[in-house]
Amino acid sequence: MENFVRMFMLLAEVAVDVIRKFLEDKIQPDNFETFLQQHRHKIYHLCYNRGRCCSCGLSPTFPTQAVIRKAQLDILFVQQPGVNCSSNSRFCCCSYIATPNIQLNTIDITLCFAIINNFITLNQQQNDCLNDIRIVRNDISHFAHQHDIDSAEFYRMWGKVTNASIHLAAYTNHTYSADILDKIERLRTRPILAVEYTKSLHEIVKWINKDEEVRIHVYF
Ligand SMILES: [Zn+2]
Ligand SMILES: [Zn+2]
Questions:
Q1: What protein residues have CB closer than 5 angstroms to ion ligand 2?
Q2: Nearest to 30 by CA among 157, 115, 154, 143
Q3: What's the pTM value of the predicted model, to 2 decimals?
Q4: pLDDT tens digits, residue range 37-81?
């Protein structure tokens, strides 16, 4: 499973950092907490998309699919007890506040994707890079049910994620992009420690469970 673990680490340790940094730059001058607070109503409906809430206008529109899970919403926001919601809607959004001091490095790659998709305007190259990373991330999650990745497949995926990561990182700046390339090269050639091996396999099981939960779950 060595190719598999290395590929997982590329996504979970390097690519995810690039994506977080990209998002951080895009929401400037807001920090993540103020960004969340400012967009809480829309983010709330990315999870609860089945009806109007206390903060909805006259003709609200909802996403056709719930794109974030309740567990993810609970990472981004905390519910304030004792809020006197003036509406009698079934759903209350006004009791949610952005998690105090929340940092981007506490959110995982799927949640980053969900936020970027819904709030950030991308150019074609940015869109392609993020898509490439997303596709490989999903492939990896499927491969986990099987054996290791063969070396042809490994190099194809590795190349895709490397390219996408250094291009995205270049939007931050070229020094950062060069650092990312260094990191990727080190990860490609260095031995994987036993503890990293175990941790990666453990994490990937979580990915699979979350993916399946998203497929089968409908939120009310
Ligand atoms: Zn609403
Ligand atoms: Zn309310």
A1: 54, 85, 92, 94
A2: 115
A3: 0.90
A4: 999 999 999 999 988 999 998 888 898 989 999 999 999 999 988
